[in-house]
Structure formats: C-alpha cells, structure tokens
Amino acid sequence: MKEWVIALFLILLFPITSFSTTEEFIEVRASENSISFFPAEGSFPFLITRLYLDNKGKRNFNLLPGSISLKDIEEGSHLLKLEVLDKEKEVHTSLYEINIKNNKMASFQLLVLQGNRLIPITRDKKGERLLLGLIKQEKDSSSLISLSQKFLVLFPESDSSEGVLFNLANIYEEREEYPKAFFFYKKFIKDYPESEKLGRARLRIGKILFGYGKYDEARDVYEKTLAFFPAEEESAKGLFQLASGYEIGEDYEKASAAYETYLLNYLEDSDYPLGIYRLANTYTTLGKILQGKIVIIKEEEIEEKEEEETTKTSETEEKPKEKKPQLSPEEKEKKAQVYYIQAYRLYEAFLLLYSNHRLCFDSQLELAILCQELNRYQESLNYLSSLERKNENKETIPKILYYQGLAKQSINEYKE
C-alpha cells in the first residue's frame, strides 16, 4: 500500500500502535522512529492530508513540513491535528496527544471529543468498550460518523464492528450522502458475507443505483438479491423498484410479472396503491404493443436481424437460430383484449379502494380511455364527463374533450 508519510524523527523504540485519524480515510501509526499515516483498508478516497503540531497543548497549531527533527520539538505534552479533505470536498479532523520527555516519546494516544472534554482511547478492551459506549450515546450524526469510523479502524476484529459498519452506511444514506453510503454498504458486503443484514445491504445498494438512474445495474442487484432474500424486510421496496426498472427499460412483460408478485405478497406496503396503478398501466401498454399501436424495438431484435444478415452473406452452412413462434393477428387481438380487461379491473379497484389518492384523477382518466379500447363508449363518456365537472387539472381538459368527442362519435356510429 502506497504510504503518505510525515515523519517526526523520534529516538525511543516505541511499540507500533495504529489509530484512525480523520474518520474512514486515514490510519495513523506511531512506530519506533516516526509517526506516519496511511490510507486505512477499505477507506473512502481522500484528496489532501495535512498534519499540524500545537505548542504544548495551547491549540496554537502550526503546519508541519514533510519531516521534522525531534530537536525542533519542545519537551512536554503536545497535540497533533490531522486534517483530511475527502473526495466529496468535506474536511475531517482528528486529534492525538503526544508526550515527549528526555528527548523520547513517552506516550501517543487518540483523543475523542465528548462534550467539552477530550477523552483518550486506548487500543484494548477498555478502549473498545469506552468508544462503543460513546457511539451508543451519541445523537448527532456528524459526531456519530466520526466515532464509528474511528472504531472500525481501531477495532476491526470486534464483534461490534459489523453493526457499527452497517449503521455507518445507513447514516450516510439518511444524510443523502449516497456515494459514501454506497461505498460502505459495498464494504459491509465484502467484510460480512454471512451477515443476517447482507440482503438488506444489497437492497440498499440497488436503491442507490436506482436513484442515480443506473437502472440496468439496479435491476441486476435486485434480481440476484430477491432470489436469495425474498423475506428480507426491505424486499417489498426492492421488488417494486425492480418492476419500475423493467418498466423504465420498456421490458413490460417482466415489469408486469414483478408488479404481480409485489401485489400478491406486500399488501401492507405504502406503495401498494401505486403498484396497482402501475400494473394497470403496464397491462394497457402490453395490449397496445400487441395491436401495433406502440412499437418498441429491443436491442435483442436488432442483434437478431444483424445475425440473420451475417448468416445470409456467410459462406458457411450453419443452421439459422429457431425463431420464437409468432402470434397470428387474431391471437394478438385476443391477448390484447385480455390485457385490457385486467387493466380495467385494476383501475376500477384503485378508484374503489383509494378514492382520495393523488392518482385518483389520473386513474379515472386512464380508465375512461381504456373503456374505448373495450368498446364501452358510454361508460367512457360517463367517466370523462365526471372528470370535466371535477376540473381538477385544467391541463387535461383538451385531452378529456378529445376523448369525449371520440366516444360520442362511436356511440352515434353504433346507433346508425
């Protein structure tokens, strides 16, 4: 591992002790002849590090050069301050106390701020219990992050490190610092592959990827995670986002299957009404695709056509790949009507169960339009007239009037 070393050349043979400096970024080591700092294992990327020395604990810090002779340091107690600028442009600070007597290093220890006091932390069971106790008592998220990161570097083999690391990632997620949350969830998965929280960590990674618009990566994470952790507490949200990812990627068959699974298994989830609405939309889209009203060209189809052309021009006599059986126009129309009926029932259920939901207006409008696909023109006209009277969304009035006109025209044609 490449070192970033600022050496304070010391005389005494001092046993090596390692401390966290600025949270997750650096590990400080005091050895027999120097004080050095390194990127801690699994550390979040940092940009700049600076080490300062005060004047006998008076908080008058001066920036240290690349190396400094022991002769230049007065005897007594001093504070070392290490500042790190991380990749997210956030500055972090850690304090250490050094005590020099008779030109020798007498002591070196990490200091943790608790209220107005600086508490020394030793790298033993006593220090572990003390730091863990401070973590459990701390309410401020910034202080909790600092304490947690120090704990993870000081006591990586502790039985408590698993929970501290997961909670650290969770804190970053709650603070919407998603790159760091993503980093520490990944570290958690790597360090604790047998953890009971493994499924939850993977789902959180999928959620972060989804939030950044990396839908393909998010879908891959969700698919693999839900296959092995179907009963995880956050599986409902994961499955819903998996379905949404398929829908965004225009893979409506997989989207409908995922939404169906979600609706069958998570009736109490807060997104359940939205799941009904989205599945109805997906069924409607599938019906229109079958009728040729929506055309979606998938990458696989383009690749198949390119392979066909290559096969035709090739001199080799390879058997062409078997194509998927194509539905006849009558079969497509019949299947489209089945999708429309399923969507119709879902929209009706939505309006019945969630009459005060924010999507109630949209659901009724979609249902009115869908009725025309099912040749239920009078029913469509009734829904549209009701929406016109509500006048909740003026932007949709032209659309409502347009479909009203279509419904009236179809009714008149039927009478004639």
UniProtKB/TrEMBL annotation:
Keywords recorded for this protein, A-Z: TPR repeat
Database matches in InterPro entries: TPR-like_helical_dom_sf, TPR_rpt
TPR repeat coordinates: 162-195, 199-232
UniProt region (Disordered), positions on chain: 304-330
Ranges of compositional bias, category Basic and acidic residues: 310-330
Name of the protein: Uncharacterized protein
Source organism of the structure: bacterium (Candidatus Ratteibacteria) CG01_land_8_20_14_3_00_40_19
